[in-house]
Amino acid sequence: MRRLDVRIETWPVAGAFTIARGAKTQVDVVCVEIADGSHVGRGEGTAIYYHGESAESVADQARSMADAIAGGIDRATLLKAMPRGAARNAIDAALWDIEAKASGVRAWAAAGLPAITPVQSAFTISVADPAKMEADARAAAPIYPLLKLKLAGEGDLDRVAAVRRGAPEARLIVDANESWTGRDVAAEAARLLPFGVELIEQPVAAGQDHLLDGVTSPIPLCADESCQDRTDLARCVGRYAAINIKLDKAGGLTEALALAAEGKAAGLEIMVGCMLSTSLGIAPATIVAQGARWVDIDGPLLLARDRSPGIVFANGIASPPDPALWG
């Protein structure tokens, strides 16, 4: 009989993580452990604030599955038994982990991959005044060749220009975080084209994706908040060129892998992102990231400290997780 343990951990952010909706100086993550007497599987989830989740609500939702865990629920049944979100992600990850430990088969192999290799991750530049973003980009560029800029709507051109001055050779992607709602998206994108921006995430508010009907952007648009799991694919096709898959949104690696497969079949490019999290939350994402064009799994790099062992980042390249960490 399996036993479920759930706890909340608080991890400080290195400085502050700032996006259009506000700043965070710490992140509360929900840690799940599933034990069977011989092995322990671990998973981590971060509450999706724009869904109204909190660490407490995620922990309560996870604890409500104690009887199902004791009864031996599997990952396929879990998808039907729980809604998408951080709680299901944490439990799904713990199930992958305990299965790997019990079988001796690494999680990536169980996912059908012939191998798992390091992936290049973006490093996030928080939204700030242009001078601060330029300085941050200049400091990051020697280490991270791919930078992701958080934008806020007003003043975005100045921000991108400043980052390009600070990091003249870096690849750039930008995240509008819904702040271009009501703006001419194609025109805004055209203004960024001279700076070599290669992807724009979530220009309009989730639920208002129809605003992109007929829009021809010179830079590919990527759905983030507008694409949570496979049920959202239909409204993304024809409006976005790519989807950003995050485990906390999708509700776990099991759904994320299915979403990636169906997204590719629908002609969409794949980006893999993350919420603020430790390496335990990132570890499963390295599996779905194997087939992604863009990867943004820098959550642990934005913290003041991380777990040990953790994901090893070298010049922005994230190594596969140590089995002592996960999977």
TrEMBL record:
GO molecular function, one term: metal ion binding
Pfam families named among the record's database cross-references: MR_MLE_C (PF13378), MR_MLE_N (PF02746)
Stretches that traverse the bilayer: none
InterPro entries named in the record: DgoD-like (IPR034593), Dipeptide_epimerase (IPR034603), Enolase-like_C_sf (IPR036849), Enolase-like_N (IPR029017), Enolase_C-like (IPR029065), Mandelate_racemase_C (IPR013342), Mandelate_racemase_N_dom (IPR013341)
EC number(s) recorded for this UniProt protein: 5.1.1.-
Stretches assigned to the Mandelate racemase/muconate lactonizing enzyme C-terminal domain: 130-222
Cofactor requirements of the protein: Mg(2+)
Protein residues bound to Mg(2+): 175, 201, 224
Cofactor binding note from Swiss-Prot or TrEMBL: Binds 1 Mg(2+) ion per subunit.
Catalytic residues of the enzyme: 150, 246
SMART domains xrefs: MR_MLE (SM00922)
UniProt keyword annotations, A-Z: Isomerase, Magnesium, Metal-binding
Similarity section: Belongs to the mandelate racemase/muconate lactonizing enzyme family.
Protein name: Dipeptide epimerase
Lineage: Bacteria, Pseudomonadati, Pseudomonadota, Alphaproteobacteria, Sphingomonadales
